[in-house]
Amino acid sequence: xxxxxxxxxxxxxxxxxxxxxxxxxxxxxxxxxxxxxxxxxxxxxxxxxxxxxxxxxxxxxxxxxxxxxxxxxxxxxxxxxxxxxxxxxxxxxxxxxxxxxxxxxxxxxxxxxxxxxxxxxxxxxxxxxxxxxxxxxxxxxxxxxxxxxxxxxxxxxxxxxxxxxxxxxxxxxxxxxxxxxxxxxxxxxxxxxxxxxxxxxxxxxxxxxxxxxxxxxxxxxxxxxxxxxxxxxxxxxxxxxxxxxxxxxxxxxxxxxxxxxxxxxxxxx
Length: 269
Known about the structure:
Elements: E1 2-8, E2 13-22, H1 38-48, H2 54-84, E3 89-95, H3 105-124, E4 134-141, E5 147-154, E6 163-169, E7 175-179, E8 185-191, H4 195-203, H5 208-213, E9 221-222, E10 230-234, H6 238-247, E11 253-258, E12 263-268
Antiparallel strand pairs: 1-2, 1-10, 2-12, 3-5, 3-8, 4-5, 4-9, 6-7, 11-12
Helix pairs in contact: 1-2, 2-4
């Protein structure tokens, strides 16, 4: 049983406090990332809705609960991977419609997986600088219905990936590069300035609509050498919780979340 979870990432710590303790080996089904969006709140509203027909209500609640758990588990995993590793580059991959049907998510997965397998093999086999490639990639569904991909990377060999300056800049003045070795379309690449901000940004791509459209399919790509942080759980009294929070110094961010199952407070240090 625990009522406190401490998550240690690359350059920050997050403390989660649960009003109702989590018992035994029960999974933390109601945990969500701090940067939740309106889709998460929408799920809460659906789950709080009561039907007159008890059997129908139970069936709907069980289905929505499973959906809720799966959705938030995916978001949390992406968030943890993004925060627990140092990233050098943020890349966007857009597929050439003459080469890839980007309305078809399975086709996007096939060609992207093929590209990543090739680049990872080059990295492991000693090509270029023999740096171990690390990445986390998530899909986004454009309003047009086409899929494109966003990812954070480290260990990229710039010559192997044929990284070249596009002669354009972001609104913030960062130079935009292109990945010349991507054979299936177009890319942009910018250097990561802040890992924590980048984690917040990339986790927001997994929305309810996005999740619905890729049900039971690949939701993200991550290399095996990525850490997802160190997570420890404890049962503490109020006085012990105060000592714990004080030990981390000044809190950078705090948020309270009310779910159908629990009340949770998140603190970031």
